[in-house]
Every structure is written in C-alpha cells, then in structure tokens.
Amino acid sequence: MSTDTQANVYVDFIKVFLSQNSTAGCVNVSQSSSDWLISSFGRFSVFTTVTDLQTLNSNFNVLDTLSLLSLRQLVELSSTPGFLSSAAAVDNLLLYVPDAQITAFFSSLSFTLQTQGVVLPSPVQEAVLQQVFDRANLTTLPDADLQIWILNILPSFIANITVQHVTSYFSIVQQRPCPISQQAVQLLNSSSSTFQPETQDQIYQLILGSLTGPAPLRCYGNQSYYAFLSSSFMSFQFPNLTTFLSLMPPARVPELMESVSPAEVSSLLNRPNAVDDVTQICQLFRNYPKTPQYLQTEPLLPVGLARQVLSCVWPQVLKVDVQSEVNQWFDHRLVQYLPLLTSQFIAPDVMLNTSCLSFKKFVSAMATYNYTAVEFSQSDIYNTILVYLNTSSDSTPKCYNTSNPDLSSTAWFADYISDFLSFVTLDDLLQFGSIQPFLVNLENLQLFGQTSVPDEVLEYYVSLLFEMNPSFSAYYLPLKFLCLAPASSFLQLSLEQMKNISSSVHQNCIDILPEVSAALASNAEVLTVDAIVALGQSSTGLSTAQISGAGGNLLLNTLSVLSLVQDWNLDQAMMIIQTLLSSGVYQINSVASLQNLGSLIIGVQSSIFNLISGNIFLEAMKSEQFVTNVARAPVIIQQTIVSQIIAVNSSSDAVITNVPDLMATEIPRVFLLDVPQSSSAAQTVNRKKWKHEQVLQGFTCSRIQSFSTSKVMSLIRGCRRRVNQTLVLQESQLTCMYHFIKSADLAAFSQYPTEVLIYYNYSMVDRSLCRSYFSSLGTANFSVLSSTLSSNKQTLFNNARDCLGISGFRISRDQLDVLGSMCCFLSGEYIQSSDPYVLEKLKPCVDLSAQQISALESVLLGGNTSYGPSDSWNRTTLDSLDPLPLYLTTNIWSKFTQDNKQRFLKTFIRDLRKNDKASEMKILNMMNEVNKISRVKIKRSAETACTVGQILQAQVYSDMFPFAYNVPQFNACLSVQTLKDNLEAVTDRVYDRSYQRIILDKLNQAYPGGLSDEVLQVLGSASRAATPDDVRKWNVTKIDTLSSLMNQRNGDWDAEMVQLLVSKYLSVNGNALGSNELNALGGTNLCALNTSVLINIRAASVERASALSLTSCSSEKKSILFSIAQNAFNATNTRSANPVSIATYQLLQNYLGGADATFIRTLLNSSVNMDVLTFMSLKQSVINVLIVPEVKSLLGVNVADLKRYESAAQIQEWIRLQLQVDLDTLQIGLTGGRNSTLTESTVSTTTTASSTKAPSAQTSTT
Q1: Whole-number pLDDT of residue 1245
Q2: Are 936 and 912 in contact (CB under 8 A)?
Q3: What's CA 1056's distance to the chain center, in Å?
Q4: Among positive and negative, which fits the CA dihedral 1084, 1086, 1087, 1089?
Q5: Residue-wise pLDDT tens digits, 275-300
Q6: What is the DSSP letter of 819?
Q7: pTM, 2 dp
Q8: Per-position DSSP letters for 947-960, written without gaps between them
C-alpha cells in the first residue's frame, strides 16, 4: 500500500471511525496511551497528529508514547507552546530522535517554529542548541550543509544564546569559507538584541579573534577596510581606535589606509568611545594618506578630539616647504582647525624648526586671527616670531636667501612679522640682522605706514632707509614716513607729485623741517597759483629768485595763502613785498592792505609805515592776528608803528590803552610818566609786556620810600616767581628788598623771591633753619649777581657745606638736591667725587667751565651713572643727557656711532634754535667737537673742487648745515647764485668766521657795486666778519638796515666799524641819530661814536629813546650824553637847589655816569635812595668829593650796601679818602678810612686837588 493510500486510510476511515460518538475513540480506561495508540492506529499512527490523538483520547499521555511517535509528530510536539518547558523535557524528547534524523528533526522544527511564529523559551532554546552542538556534528559537516544550518535551521534557536554556546558556535564557523563565517555572524547579528551583554562581548572577542591569528583579515577583499570591519562586527561593538589600527598587518597598512574614505574616518572617530587613546589619533593620521581631504571636507569632531587631530598634523604642517602645499594647508585644510590653537601650539620651542614658507603663512594667518576665544595673545605670537627670526647663524636675516626663489622676497617684514610689527622694539630690530635689502620694499613700507610702532623704531628704519638710499622718493613713502623723511626724499618730484605730497605732509606732520619745505619748493621751477596753494606753509622754502620770478600778479592772486604762512625769512618777505609794490598791483595805505599782508608784514620797510596815519594802525590793531604778526617783525618796525600810534594821542593814559600789550616794550619811557593810578589803569599796565627800564613805578627803593612797611612786604611777596612766570628782578631791587625783609620775618624763605636769599646776611639765619634756607636758595637764579658780588657764590657754597655737613669733596644725592642751582658752580673735584646724580643738577646750568666739563665727562666715562657704561650708549643716552651734549668734547662724542650722533643732533640743534636754548657759538663749539672725530682731511689738490656735494636750496635750510662741510668744501660747494637766492637761510646757520668770510667774498662777487640795504638786513652775524673795506662799499641808507646791523645778538662790533657804519648812514640826506637810531645803537655802539657825532644828538631823540647804557663810554662822552639827557627830561633846572622828582631821577639814572658833582648834590634832598651799583657808575671824581653824610643822604636805605660792595675799586677809593670816624657813623662796618689823628698838612700833601678829596664831615665846606 502506498503512502498516499495509507494516509487516505487514516483520514477517511480510522480518524472518522474513532471520532464517532459511538466508538469514543475506542478508549479503554485500563489501557495505556501507548497500548491505545498501537491498538487503535497500528502502522497508520504516523499519519495522525498529536493534536488529533489528544482530541480522540482525552486521556492521551504524550510522554508515554514518545517512542511510538514519528519525526513529524515529535516536531509537532516540540513546537507546541508549553510542551517543552525545560531542558530535561528537551533532552527526553530528543532521546527518541535517532542521530540519523537529527538534521531533519531540527530542520523541520525550525521551519515549523518560523512558520507558526513560535519562540521557544530561553532554557528550551539553550537545551535545543546544546543538542545541536552535541549531536549534529556541525564541525564535520560539509560547507554546503553547514551553510543550510546557518541559513535555515539555526535562526530559530539562536535567540538568547549563551556565552558558552557562542564559543561553540564560533569554533564551528570561524575556519569556514568567508561567506559562511560572515553568514554565521549575520545570524548572530539578527538576534543580537536578545543577547546578554556578556554574550555580545564574547561575540566581539570571537570576531576580533577571527580577524587575527595566522591569517589575519583573511576575509578582507578589495573593499574599504572600515566597511569590512563594519560588516565583520556588525552590531557587536565596533573596534576602538587602538584595535582598529592594531588589526592591520604592518605590511598591509598602506593598502588598508588607502581604502578608507575621509567620511569613514569621520564616522570612526565620531563613534562613542571610539578614541580609547588620544595618542592613537596621531598614529591614524600619520599613516592615513587622505588626511588633507579629511581635514578639509569633514566636520569638526568634538573640540577635545579636534584639537588632538590638529596636534597630530601640526608638526607635519610646520615642516612643509613647498609653497603650493603650504597654501593648501593654511587656506583650505586647516581653516576649521586654526581656531583651536592654544599657546602650546604656537610656543617658540614648537615653532623653532618651522620651514620658512610655513612660518610665513602662519604669521599671515595669525595677523587676521580672532583672539577673543583663545588664551594666548598677539604679543605671544610676536614673542614666537622674535625667537624664530633671531636664530640666524650670521648677519643675514633668517628666511632670506637671494639664491632661493622662494626666500628671495624683500617683503621680509610684511612676510615674517606682518601686523605684529607693533610689538617690535629698536633692540629687536637690531637683532634681526642686516635689514638693508628690505628697506625700500613697498610692502614693508606700507606695513610700517599702517602699523603703530615705537617712534625710535620708525626713526631708525627711516634713517637707515635714507642712509642706504638717499634719493628714495617721498612719492613711495607711507604718510607717517613723510614726517621723518629727509629733504633729499622730496627732490626731483613732478609738479603733480609735489602737490600731492605737500598736501599729505601738511595734513599729517606736526613739525615740518625747513629743509623739507625747501626741497618741496625747489620742485616748482615755475611758480603757479596751484603750486603755491599746494606748498602752503612750505612756501617758506622758496628762494628769493623763485619769488621774484613769480611776478606781482601771481603773488597778489596767492596773497591769501602767503599771508598765512608763518616763519618767513626776512629776505623772502621783503622780496614778496618788493615785487608786489614795484609791479604796481598792491599799495599799503589802508587798514585792509595792512591786515591782508598777514605774516608778510615783517617784509615792509619802516619808511612805508612812516607814511601811514596812526589812526589806520589803531584800526588795524583791533585784529589780534595783525598784532601778533607785527610783534614778530623786526624791532624797528614795531618802534615805527608805536611812534605812529603815539602821534595820535601822546597822553600816558591813551598810550597804554592804544599800544597793544605785545608791543608795549617799544613805548618810550617819557610817555609813561603820567599813567593814571586807577585800578583799571593798573590792570591795563599789568597785562602788558614791559622792559625793566620802562617800569618806572616798579619795585625800587626810590619808588617805595613813601609806602607803609606792610605794603612793601606785600609787594615783595608778590614778586615771588610763580609757575609760567618769567619775572626777572635786578640786583638793586633784590638788595632793596632785603633791607625790609631783615627787619620783618627773615625766616619766611618760601614767601620771598628766591633771589633775595642770595643777599641775606647768613649770620642772621637761625642755624636750625639753615637747611631750609639753602633748600630755598637752591632754586634761585644766580645770574642776577653783579660781577662785583660774584665772589659771594663761593661764600654761599662754603656756608652750605658747613650747614649740610659736607666734608671733603663728596656730596650725597640728598645734599645735591638741597644745593640745587648752587651745583652750577661746583669745582671739578666736587663733580668727580660726588654722587653721579650731580650730572642731573648740572643740566639746568647756564654755562659750564672747561674744568667742570672735564669732570662731568670723567663721571660719565666711569660708567656708574644712570647712563651706564660707554659701550651701551646710544641715541637714547644722548636724548637723556640733554642739554649736556652742548658741552661734551670728543672724549664723549667718540663713544657714539655716527648714526646715533646724526639722528640726535638733527633734532637737538633744531630744538636749541627753535626754543632759543643756546647761543649759536655754543652750537658751533659743540659741532666742532663732534666733527673732530669724523672730519676727513682733504687733499690739497681737491681743495678747490667740490667733493661732498653741491650746496643747494634744500641743504641750506637744514639745521645740520654747514657742519658737513669744512672751509674749503664750503667755499667750493656754495655757488654765488645759491647764496644770493637763499641768503638769510645761509647766514642764519653759519657762525664760524671762516665760513662767514667766504659768504662775504661771494656776495662781493655777486654785487660788485656794493651790498644793498636788503642784503645787509639779512647778513646777521656774518656782518661781523666784514673788514672796513667791505663796509665802505655797503649801502647803509635805511634805519631798517642800521637796526639789523647793530643787533647785539649777532655779536659785537669794533669801534672803527661802528663809526664807519654810522658814518655811511648819516651821509644819506635826511638821516640823523633819532630815537630809533639810538635804540638800534644801544649803549655800547653809541659809545664807539666820536664826540663830534654825539654832540649833534637832539634832546628829543634821547627823550624818546630807550634807556641807554653808558658803561663803555669815556668820561667825556658820558658828560655829553648826560647833558643832552638833562635837556631831554627837563632837568636843566637841577642846577638850582630844587629837588629832583623820582620819575626824573629814574629817567636820568642810566646817564648819571656823566653827571657832575653839582648835579649829584641836587639829589641829596630828593630822597632818591640811589642803589650802590648806580653810585658806582658815577665818575670817580664825583664819588671822591662826596663826604660820608652826603653819601648817606644819597643812598638812603641802600647805604648799608656799601659794606656789601666795599671790595669794588670805586668804593675802596672813596673809603680811603674818608675819615674813619666818619665812616663809623654809618655803623655798617666799613674800614680803611683816614686816621683822624693825621695833621692837616699831612692830609694836604696826600691830596692833589679838592676835586679828588672829600673834606671831613667834621669841618665846614664852602
């Protein structure tokens, strides 16, 4: 019977039959289930199901019939939920499955479970798997059979697999072909969610083990290594970074790394806990060939990991030495990573060995870096730059190599320092090596122009730039360099370039050097309106030839510009005015025409002002700017204008009201006699600028005799010098003050003018207050001391030594501070032995002796001062020494480099001249010492040839001119034309007589017919080099010329020369010695004139003249001038017994040296309180005939000063003629008089004439 028939028999007969109610399954209660199965079904039982059996027999016991069940029925039973509930049940059931059918059983069971969706309990599954591993012989199965198991059978039993079974499982599959082993893992992966952690860990370890061993990565194919691992581990914990790297066989690392994409590296590193060891990141990127692509394209990792990535590639980046690669790194690959830099990345030791190209790119990146979120600063970057650039082995700056195209760029500062230039110091700059090749590079210049660098750095760069390239054009300079560039930079510019640069210079530079203005102006060969407008203030550099060539119309059209220019030279202003007037385009005859001249007013000759009404000047003076401009004009201009103003109304009240404050010094004293005593008048007077001689109502013993003591003391306190006050008191005033102070509060040192303390009787100073006294005295100006009392300096110093406890020659710093200005007369021994701080106390001194200079140089060279040893001296040292360089000799100058000296002197000399800090002779002496070191001896054959460069318009305006030229070269290099066109610029800077002689010789060549007034007015001190033959050819026709030539600031004249000059002047029709002429001559030059000239001076001229000093006049000339002064000041009636007014006395005071005894005796009853210095100026014959009571009346409160001045020859002679008993009546300690016991005959024989002998006060006189 076939199987199908048998099945039909079961279905159609047996099952139907047993299902009938009548048969009830043929169940016998005493019969076992196995017996029932055999008896009821027989061999047809294999076609039934367990379910049918249980339905037909409600008491059916499956376990009793297991041995009778077919494989299908056992599968049905196993898949029935709840039947297999324990491992024992599984083991029991499978006892009835023969080994030969074990595969069929599990295959059918797996299918059934999957079909029915039944999941076996974990213990059951575990027992089932154990049965599989024990009986299925999987280890020995062919690959195809094993693959069936993996794909079809095992999936139903793999859930919740245990560690033990996983291990067994892997022992079966790990050596199988790769597809099978991978399918085996995939099977596990499908149920991984049901696995315990330890199971998953075991699977990971087993997979890991499968990838190592004798044939590591045996299943890896031509694929991504990362993808391979992903497919190998699936969901079972992807390897960490260390494992990821360690799985690679060393020989296959390049291959495997190449297979991984940047995105996969990113995925790897972004996995949780993937980076177990941050150092392994460097291992990864060290071997990864696609690191650049990764950095450029993949998003940043978390900051910590991303910074670690950067740390791994950073050293590699710094070593890149190919420009294109460097650019790729910084411009693309590291864009995301540079913000992650820390101080460790940019530390000097890290960056030290960086390639030049990478370092340059690093500096560029850091220049635009955002420093707000990092813990390092720009100064840290600069420190790294500084260390890096200072590692050059020679003087060649690091990273500069002319033979290497990549390193041959001269934009060195822009490339390697960039915006960090602001941190550079001069010392840094000097350490970089020879930077000369980089100086003219436009990128570097632009960088310096845009960066705020220390002044000394900028100055050094500019000085070096022009030292190496003297003619480098200002057109290429950044704005800030324009203010430091030398004149040579502004030469040879086109007109358009000049306009642009001039505009920039005037907009950006505070103080434009005169030589720069001259250089700019020299570019305008033909002046135009545009050129003058562009030059602006630099029009002061124009030559007189340029000005005269411009023509009147052009000058008129630009007058609004030219009139605002300050600091015109007189010859320039005169040429402008002369051109305007001579061309007929301008007239000076109104308020507007005066005011419109602006600063050019200085160029108008005084003769023109004499023709203008005083009322016009009064109106013009309402402009403060006009007043300021006039105050800068030559004094003769001011005097002329003041005279015209006074002519309008000569009352004292009107004069002090009408004459501007700045010009009050030119008001003749006679117009100040009747100044009202009102408070408003006092305020007007106090606002004005006065000369000492004008202040007739100032502090003198003559004036204050009627004042109360309290008022006098108040005046004295009011005379104390205050901040920004330049009150200068005279010795006669100070001694007068002392007479009142000694009777008041002598110890109130701080309340009085400090100069009064010079005249204290030290014995009257309380010893306990002596330090306070000398501390106050230390601020005094000792120049007030007359030559007669100059020895008092030593006395004062000796007293100070005693007070301060100074022993020997050493003075401490504290003691030096107390001494103050008394340090200015310390001897060389004191200077050398004292605290080095003594140098600071010598700085304010007006002058120093040769001995003092030698001593201070010894102190400097000792190296123990704040200026350090001489080998450390530089430009800053010279700046700090200011003004002592004025006195230094070659001993000190030789210690400075030529560059330091030149840079210092350029600004130093300009400051000295601009602020009138030193005489030109002092400057000349200083430069002689400086030039002793560098002066080159010129061969005799070259003496007539210019070898150091022609002197042109720009050079003569330099404050260093003519110091670069010795006498032969000055002669050879200065053309007559240059001298003519820039005369005042030359004469204003040349003070050596040898040079000045050359100037005169060349002028004689230029003007063979003689020098004109206009030329003479700007000769300055060069006029003093003239000979009588020179002067005889001069045209001295104008008071302006005489006034200029007689200017005492330009030096003294010999008497013969004065006589010649005045004779030339007076020979002109209409010229006379008027008040202006007398003011121009002054006392010394006036005394040089012959008596035949003096007697022709009119009284009115003396009346309106300033007080003239007659000290150098002969007795005869003094008498002539006094006689004229008597008439001038209406004092002719003083031959009577009428007293002389105090005002008249003060007007005559300067002329009293020519007075006779008769006039002097008229002063006895006038209470003039003559000061002793005036007394000593009297004729000795007059002094000698005055007896003691007369002198006492004459001197009044000042009589005690006879003791102070008793060492003077005049006083000594008078004392010897007096009876000692008469002198004793003065009670001031005078000694040396005649003995009263001498006989009259003895006296007579010792006296030659009554005119030279004073009669005794005890005998009558007739």
Answers
A1: 40
A2: no
A3: 55
A4: positive
A5: 999 899 999 999 999 999 999 999 99
A6: H
A7: 0.76
A8: -S--B-TTGGGSTT
